[in-house]
Amino acid sequence: MEVRKVFSSARRSVSSSSLRQRLSSFSSLTTTPLKPVANLHTHIDFVPAKIPRKRRLQTLAVAIWSTTIVWCIAVFLILCSFPPLWPLLAAYMIWVRYLDKSPESGGRLSPWFRSMAMWRYFADYYPASFLKTCDLPPDRPYVFGYHPHGIIGMGAICTFATESVGFSAAFPGIVPHLLTLASNFRMPFYRDIILAMGICSVSKESCSRILKKGPGNAITIVVGGAAESLSAHPGTADLTLRKRLGFIKIAIRHGADLVPVFSFGENDIYQQMPNDKGTTLYTLQKKFQSVFGFTLPLFHGRGLLNYNLGLLPYRRRIVAVIGHPIHVVQCDNPTLEEITHVQQQYIDELMWIWNTYKDDFARTRTRELSIIE
Q: Cα-atom radius of gyration of the chain, to the nearest Å?
């Protein structure tokens, strides 16, 4: 027992002396007190207190649209908490799931909804606009190919799903339908909003039904899809196009002119985490895409009250240049040679847009346009 007491006492004395030495060495250093609030300010650029009302409304419009899916689902779940509403909600879901064929047959486009003041604030936020290179006569159907996909495709929404930039005034007689995944039409209330914007399913049946309506009807396909969204990095224009032949085949089968559209700035409104091919992140994203049909780019933008942290897009100019139409000869069963010939014409026109306007609208590019797939 005595030996144990002596040992424990010695150990305590050694520990205390060692602690005193360490404290004395620390006291000799020049230290700066921690200032967590000041440190936070150095990393996050907060919005000034005095901001013009117009800019606040622009940010609000973008915030509303960016969270539309979230608050639509939230409203639906809140309504589900009221048992008296269950019969109505059940009838609505049956109508959505089995009866309403609008997403596959041209939607329920509402000119009033597309022309709401909110969309003008939405477009002015970036600001978004389009450049018309030639007239498009409304005596034929059209297939617009939109590039690049970007993270979300905000420029496509401004140009083809709303009247915020004046598409119908610039191209009278042409009725645009932006196309998206069919899964978006399974979300309650959100589906009704995008249907009122003229957005429809991107399925073959939907494309065919819209184009068969006759001259002046147009569809807009964001050609690169989910795969291209993984390449959406600021200053780049890496397109997934070479293997995309379906939209060209649809245009030939319906005798619809093909119109390439390149949106300068679409890739600049978000920052995406590095995900080069071969990285673990890229592999996981591709596996997710193969299972669910879409992918989840890991990105960030700005917030409501700061300029560099959040999920809202940055205020960076978007200019969609609408190129010259490529006239195609109607053919019910085009050969691969005919399809690739039209595709080359399409790519040539797209490259003409890039080379003509890149010095005006892509001055901060880090590399030239590239067709990676």
A: 28
Residues ≥6 apart with Cβ < 8 Å to 254: 141, 208, 211, 212, 330
pLDDT tens column, 50-64:
899 999 999 999 999
Segment among 30-34, 128-132, 166-170, 198-202 with least mean pLDDT: 30-34
Residue 168, both tokens: 């119908």
Instruction: Decide the pairing of beta strands 217-222 and 257-264.
Output: unpaired
Count of CA atoms in the C-beta half-sphere (13 A) of 200: 30
- DSSP annotation string for 105-156: TT----HHHHT-HHHHHHHHTTTEEEEE-S---SSS-EEEEEE---SS-HHH
Confidence check: pLDDT of 319 > 80: yes
- Please report the pLDDT score of residue 47 as a whole number: 87
* Inter-residue contact 248 to 144 (CB < 8 Å): no
Residue 13 pLDDT more than 50?
Answer: no
State yes or no: cis peptide before 127, omega within 30 of 0: yes
Write out pLDDT tens, residues 255-264. Answer: 999 999 999 9
Could you tell me which of 6, 27, 269, 290 has the C-alpha nearest to residue 157?
A: 269
Given a contact cutoff of 8 angstroms between Cβ atoms, the answer to whether 169 and 114 are in contact is no
Strand, coil or helix: what is 44? coil
The two structure tokens encoding residue 270: 């978000």
Angle at 140 between CA 182 and CA 205, to 5 degrees: 25
Q: What is the pLDDT of residue 354?
A: 97
Residue with the bigger pLDDT between 15 and 240: it is 240
11 CB-contact burial (10 Å; exposed 0-12 / middle 13-18 / buried 19+): exposed
- pLDDT, residue 275, reads 86
Residues 281 and 273: their CA atoms lie apart, in Å, by 9
C-alpha span between 191 and 188 (Å, rounded) = 6
User: Do residues 235 and 366 lie in contact, with contact meaning Cβ atoms separated by under 8 Å?
Assistant: yes
Would you say 324 and 132 are in contact if contact means Cβ atoms under 8 Å apart? no
